[in-house]
Amino acid sequence: MYITSIKRSAFFYLVAFVLLLFTGCKKNSAPADNSPLDASLSFTVNGQYNGTFIYNGLGTNPTVTITFSEAIDAATITAGVTLTNSGSPVALTTQLQNGNKTLVVTPQQALVSLTTYTLNVSNSIKTASGGRLVNPVAIQLSTALDDTDKFPRITDEELLTLVQKQTFKYFYDMGHPVSGLALERNTSGNTVTTGGSGFGIMALVTAVNRNFITRADGLARMQKIIAFLKTADRFHGAYPHWMDGATGKVIPFSTKDNGGDLVETSYLMAGLLTARQYFTGADAGETTLRNDINTLYNAVEWSWYRKDNSDVLYWHWSPNYAWDMSVPIRGWNECLITYVLAGASTTYPIPKSVYDAGWAQNGAMKNGNTYYGAQLPLGPANGGPLFLEHYSFLGINPKGLADAYANYETQTKAHTLINYNYCKANPKAYMGYGENCWGLTASDISGGYTASSPTNDVGVIAPTAAISSMPYTPTEAMQALKFFYYKIGNKTWGAYGFYDAFSLQQQWFATSTLAIDQGPIIVMIENYRTSLIWNLFMSCPEVKAGMKNFGFTSPNL
């Protein structure tokens, strides 16, 4: 009996233990069966994963395939998967596959070429069981150049006219309403630019000659400009870099740059003298205009800017800081026109010795080295930014021009070819650089401004660089113009002609326009087509005499 009782007790406890074990396991496993399952993802772009979240050079219809570790809730896709361009949504087509574990994403319409988009897969995505996405991602998708034409093809002559006419709107339609002068840039409010206005005056003459506006309208704008300049701030006859277009008061370019700027003044005077040579009518309006221009030019105290009769001209003078900036104007750079007009002055001239010792540094501005297949007579290594060969030569005709230091036809062409061949060689392997996309000069860049050149190349092309070089390298310049307009014009072309700059490498496109970049486009195209501005400026008797005195020779003197 005792043994039997022990056996029964043992059996009872054994059964109870098994039941407890069974029920305990069942109770503990229930939550695992019902809890939400989280998911992670992986993805490919056009079937490839490059190890990053950045995909460049894509077509306009990319496919992103997202693979989840768990089936996802289809209802959460709309909120959880979005494509945007600069914050603006782009419609998507999505398709679930593989038991809702694979999501194929494509844009509903072709994307825009040369544009960056962001595909966000956020934690709004939920799994079918209500779990979360543990690794949301933001994938950058950048489209490549679409080689289709963005505008209908027209003849080369029609294209040149279109570019000149559209670009002229910057100076005419957007000229300051009070002064008529050029805004520094399209977002400058009342800030007008002295040098850029000189370029704009040359553009105005071009526009009248091409019947973009009437002669009467051109004269009226010139009269407004002259009336303003007669009362605007001047410092020993020189205007400041910037002025308030409503009042004529100086706007400091920097703290100590709040007085006369001789270089900017020379650009303005070159424009005014060009207008004087164009508006030659005997009527009272044009006669008065010419007399007023003579008065403004003759009032510039060029020789005073030698600073106590030194052998060089100085760039700035301030009524508050005097000569503190102390920037001598020495060559080779964009300032040849400053010395030419100083030498041409009949009221405050400088002697040839100042040109030789100050500007030419008695020959020290010579270069003579060869870069990218072109021998450069003057200037810095690799030529520097192209505006060095534009600003002075809007009026000064380099064709056949020479002095003791250089042949300027050779100089302008060599500098341009170095810039072109550098971009064609593309040593930094920037996207887009080549025979159709070239031109490094001072311009806006993403987040700032810089003077781009072969020795300071940040991947930014400025249309003004190549287009304004058309008189020097017409074939190469026309190739670039066609590329800028036909191939990427949907990004680079606006209400006032070409925007200031762009980078295919960074897929950055400026929305700005600057007077000092727009003006040379119009003027240099015209000099290429007809030599109009060259002929007018070089016809100035003062210019002829002054340049001859400095030792220049030219068929145009």
Biggest beta sheet attributes: 5 strands, mixed
Q: Could you say what the CATH architecture of the largest domain is? A: Alpha/alpha barrel
Rough shape? elongated
Radius of gyration over alpha carbons? 34 Å
Work out the helicity level. Answer: 25-40%
**SSE class:** alpha+beta
Point out poorly predicted stretches.
Answer: 1-32
Distance between the termini: 142 Å
**CATH homologous superfamily identity of the largest domain:** Glycoside hydrolase 144 (GH144)
The average pLDDT is 94
Would you report the number of β strands? 22
CATH topology of the largest domain: Glycosyltransferase
- CATH classification class of the largest domain: Mainly Alpha
Domain count: the total is 2
Number of helices: 16
Strand order of the largest sheet: 2-9-8-4-5
- Strand proportion, as a percent range, falls in 5-15%
Organism: Mucilaginibacter boryungensis
Domain Glycoamylase-like: 328-541
Domain SbsA Ig-like: 59-139
Keywords: Signal
Task: Write up what this structure looks like.
Helix 3 packs antiparallel against helix 14 and helix 5 packs parallel to helix 7 (284-298). The chain has 2 domains: 41-143, Immunoglobulin-like (Sandwich), CATH 2.60.40; 156-549, Glycoside hydrolase 144 (GH144) (Glycosyltransferase). 37% of the residues lie in helices and 14% in strands. The protein is α+β, with helices and mostly antiparallel strands. InterPro entries: Cu-Rt/internalin_Ig-like, Glycoamylase-like_cons_dom, SbsA_Ig. Pfam families: Big_5, Glycoamylase. Residues 59-139 form the SbsA Ig-like domain.
